[in-house]
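Deliverable D5.2: sample structural annotation.
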Amino acid sequence: MEEVGQPNPLKFRIFYYFASHKVFLKRLGFFLIILLSVYLYGYSAYHLTNYFLGSREYEAMIRELARDSFKFHEYFELHQPKPLIILETAALPGVSGKYDFVAQVQNPNPKWLARRVSYRFVWPGGTFEDDEEDFILPGEETYLLALNKEVSGQVLSPKIEFVNISWQRVKKLIEISDKDFIISDVEFISGWDITTLNGAKAPSRVKFKVRNNTFYNFWEAGFKVVLIRYQDVVGLHYGAAPQFKSGETISPEVIWLDEVPTPTEIKIEPAIDYLTSENYMPRESSEGELK
C-alpha cells in the first residue's frame, strides 16, 4: 500500500521519460500528423479521381441502356402481329332490300391466330348495327361474310371495318390444314332451269362432299361457299355440319332462294378453328371409352 507523501517511482519514471524525450516526441507527433494528412489527401484524391472516371462510365452505361431499351422496343414492335390485309370487298344485292357482304382478307402472320375478329361493313351514308365475328388462322387467306343484312338504300363502295381483333400467339402449329378436309363432287344446280308445280323457279343449290381426313373429331364444321363468275363474286353462303368425325364423309348442301347467276368457279372454304381446343370432340377408344 502506497504511503501518503511518498513519491511514486512509476509516475516519476514516466514523467522523467517525457521530460528527457520531449524533442523526440514532438517530432514523432509532427510526423504522425503529416502521415495522417498524406493519407487523408491521398484517400480524397483517389475517390475524387474515381468519381470523375466513374461518372463517365455511368453516363456511358446510361447511354448504353438507352440504346438497349430502344432495341427492346424495336424487338417488341418486330414481334407484334402485323395488321390484317384487305384484298377485296363487295356487296351483293338480294331480295327485299337485303345485302350480302364479303371481304377477302389475309392474315400475314405465320405464328399469330386472329382468334376473334369483330367487324362490320360500312359505305357512304350507311352501315348495319350488329357486328360480325370470325377467326383467321395463321397465314390464312379467307372470306369474311355478313349475310342477309337489311339496309336502307343502295350500297356503293363498301369497306370492311375491324372493330376489335383478339390475337393469340401460336407457339406450335398443329399439323392440320384445309387440305386435310378433302372436298369433292362439287355441283351447282341452277334454279333457273327448274320450274316448280306452281310455276315458280326452284332455288339454286350447291352440293358437295367433304371428308375429314384428320385424326380428330370436331363439334362443328363450317363451310364458306363463294360463287365467282368471271372474277366477280355473284353468290355467298355459309353452311355448318355438327359433329364432324375423323374419317367421316358428309354431303352438305346450301340453297339460294333468290336468283343466282351460273358461276364459272365455286370456292368452298372449310371454316374450322383447329387451333382452339374447345372445338375438339373427345375420341372414343375401341372399348367405347372417351379419350
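Annotation notes: The CA atoms of residues 11 and 17 lie 10 Å apart. DSSP finds two helices and 15 strands in the chain.
The annotation will be released with the project's public dataset once the embargo ends.
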